[in-house]
Amino acid sequence: MKECLQSAQIIIQGAGPVGLACAIWLLQSNPDLELVLLDKNTQSDDDLNHGDTRGIAISEGSKQLLNNMHAWVDSAPAIHQVHVSHQGHFGRTVMSKDEIHQDALGHIVRYRDIVLSLRKQLRTMQAKVKHFTWLFDINNDFDMPSLSPEVCVIHADGGLFHEQSAKDIHKDYGQSALVGWLEVRDVKPHMAWERFTQGGPIAILPHHQGPQAKNFVWCAPVAKIDQLLSLPEDQFLKELIQAIQLPIGKFLKVHDRRSYPLGLNMRKHIVQGHEVWIGNAAQTLHPVAGQGLNLGLRDAFTLASCLHTIYARPSSNRAQDLEARLLQYQEQRKQDRQATIRMTDLMASVFTSNFFPLVIGRGLALSALQWLPPVKNKLARQMMFGQR
Ligand SMILES: Cc1cc2nc3c(=O)[nH]c(=O)nc-3n(C[C@H](O)[C@H](O)[C@H](O)COP(=O)(O)OP(=O)(O)OC[C@H]3O[C@@H](n4cnc5c(N)ncnc54)[C@H](O)[C@@H]3O)c2cc1C
Prior knowledge:
Elements: H1 2-6, E1 10-13, H2 17-29, E2 35-38, H3 46-49, E3 55-59, H4 60-68, E4 78-79, E5 81-86, E6 92-96, E7 106-110, H5 111-126, E8 132-135, E9 152-155, E10 169-185, E11 191-196, E12 201-206, E13 213-221, H6 222-230, H7 233-244, E14 250-266, E15 271-272, E16 275-277, E17 283-284, H8 292-307, H9 318-350, H10 356-371, H11 373-385
Parallel strand pairs: 1-2, 1-9, 2-8, 5-11, 9-16
Antiparallel strand pairs: 3-7, 4-7, 5-6, 10-13, 10-14, 11-12, 12-13, 14-17, 15-16
Helix pairs in contact: 2-5, 2-8, 8-9
Bound molecules: flavin-adenine dinucleotide.
Flavin-adenine dinucleotide binds at residues 13-19, 38, 40, 54, 56-57, 138, 140, 142, 156-160, 177, 179, 217, 260, 279-280, 287, 290-294, 296.
């Protein structure tokens, strides 16, 4: 394996959605690339087939990116309208696809479905390229050998907040997310609700099984989520209805409850010499605004575009060219990263605070969004497309 890594042009460490997408884009633009992908999973999809079912909100911008690489998940339900409100306080806003002249505001895809779809597409490409090596069963104590500065190392080994070591900005919100899905009746299809409650935000989202099911994400203090996890079904549903207090429809059953600790963990500098960090390895965010994966896919796409020409032709000083190009990439990603991270951190902090001026402020902010369409459209566009 050591020789294989040392003779590579690019190594991607981590084969979550961002690492896989980056590999596909790199090979799409340069089929002769000597690329190695280090995957913690097994070669077979068996474990992934029973893996992470959390519903991820994919923006229209990300859908376009995934469509272009033939990795879109067709069963993903569309969101046509989002209702954002705050329990017990004034202020609400409704965003709809028609206001911004799009087919949808976004889609919901299960984490495992997106990984499986990207793996499928990468396998299809693998059959057509000569120098791509996909190594499986890479565990955490894997030690990267010393490499020439001509080899670009892409860290896409993000993982979840609690699995990571602290980066430059590390903030534990003291919250976990409880995710799962509900069997429902009389609930509007293609509609999503984000409800800010005293404990944290709760999202009710479309589900791939159709209008009789909804995904949910419930963020609250860790102890509360631990308690919710172990509650019998009927009590859990009662608590959920009580926490939301909105006439959404009937919640009949709950399935597949799982919890995820939440925090912000980000690198200020995402490039160091010939190494670069993307996706959750560069920034791990609170899911309140549904932006982590969307931002990570933009990282991967921009990086693949930046690296496109570096290995496509001979160079007398590749190490220097690579370093310069990676610094360009860092600069290109600055604005989008900053805007997305700031917006997410602000939402995670402000909407869980009970400090009176903030309570008033967020009510006003939601009302302002409703009554100032240009502001609302600008926010919607940032969330849907970021800044590419
Ligand atoms: C509850 C919850 C809800 C979310 N909802 C949304 C949402 O609605 N919209 C959105 O855009 N984002 C959402 N996110 C964020 C999103 O899940 C992440 O941003 C996204 O998964 C990042 O992808 P990634 O490939 O960078 O990292 P990961 O998905 O973490 O994948 C990294 C991969 O690298 C592997 N790995 C780790 N260490 C190593 C190693 N040493 N060597 C090799 N491989 C390694 C890991 O096992 C994993 O397979 C949510 C997150 C949570 C927790």
